[in-house]
Amino acid sequence: MGHMKQLQTRAHETQPAVQLDPLLSSTAILDFGHPRILEVIRARGWADLPEFERVGAIYAFVRDEIRFGYNTDDDIPASRVLAAGFGQCNTKASLLMALLRGSGVRCRFHGAAIHKSLQQGIVNGLFYRLAPDEILHSWVEVQHDGRWVRLEGVIIDRMYLAGLQATYPDRRGDFLGYGVGTADFSDPLIDWNGSDTEIQMTGVSADHGVFEAPDSFYAEVGTNLGGFRGALYRIVVRRWMNHKARVIRRRSPKARVGDSGDF
User: Fold this and answer.
1) First-to-last CA distance in the chain?
2) 51-60 and 89-102 helices, crossing angle to 10°
3) Which residues, other chains included, contact 103 with Cβ-Cβ below 8 Å and sequence gap of 6+?
4) How many other C-beta atoms can be found within 10 angstroms of the C-beta atom of residue 119?
5) Rounded to the nearest 5°, which phi and psi values hold at 2?
6) How far apart are CA 150 and CA 118, in angstroms?
7) What are the structural domains of the chain?
8) What is the pLDDT of residues 105-141, one digit of tens each?
C-alpha cells in the first residue's frame, strides 16, 4: 500500500501544472478581480460581445468616460484609476489592460518615453523647467488580423480634444503640446477600426519595448518622479495641470453650461 501511494504521488508530481496565459493574467496593477472592475464589465456586457466589438467598446469607454487628467502616480492599480474617473497615458493603459483581460482579451504593455515638450501648455514656467526632459510613456497592444495593434489613442478624451481644437481653430497638420502629439491635429487617429490608434506618438523620444504587464515595466524602469519633485508634482503641479485640462475641456462646442468636469 505504501509503495502504491508513493507511485501515485510521483505520478501526480510529474503531471504538468496548468499554465495561465500571462497576457490574460491579473497583477497588482491589473487588478481586474476587484469588485469595481468586475461590476463595470458585467454592467456593460463586454464579455458577451464578439472580440472586435469588445475591444472597441472597452477602448471607447476608457478614452471618453475616463477623462484625460493626472493621477498621483503612474503605478496605481487599475481599480483606483476607474474610481478616480480620469487618467493619463500610463494610468489609462493600466485600466484599459485590466478591462480587456477581465473581458477575455489578450493584451500586452509597451513602454516608451516622451519629451516633456508634449506637456508644454498644460504645464508652464518653473514647473515645466523642473520636469525631466523625458517622461515615461506607455500604450496597450492587442492582436488583430495576425499582428499587434497599438491602442495609444485612448489617452485623450474627445471633449478635451474638441476643446483644444477650439482653442487653436486654425491649426492643421502637426501639433505638439497640451498632452497631444499628432501629425493631424484636425483629425487624429483615435478611433478603433482594427488599426493603430495614436494621439501622442509624435512626442515619443525613446522605446523601452514590450512587457507582459506594467508591473514588470515599472519594476525595471521605475516611475516618473520621486523625492522632492515627486512630492511637488503630487501636491501642487498635477492639480494645476488638471485645472488646465478642465479649462480646455469647457471650450469644447459640446460642453454643457456649468459642466466643470471636476476631478
Assistant:
1) 68
2) 150
3) 41, 46, 47, 54, 58
4) 25
5) -60, -40
6) 19
7) 23-250 (3.10.620)
8) 999 999 999 999 999 999 888 777 777 788 899 999 9
The pTM of the whole model exceeds 0.70: yes
Q: Grid coordinates standing for 184?
A: 493631424
Which grid cell sits at 163?
476643446
For cell 487617429, the residue is 189
Interval 74-109: pLDDT, tens: 999 999 999 999 999 999 999 999 999 999 999 999
Burial 136-147 (b: 16+ CB within 10 A, else e): bbbbbbbeeeee
* CB-based contact 121:171 (threshold 8 Å): no
Query: Coil, strand or helix: which one is 20?
Result: coil
Task: Supply the DSSP string of 39-64, one letter for each residue.
Answer: HHHHHHTGGGS-HHHHHHHHHHIIII
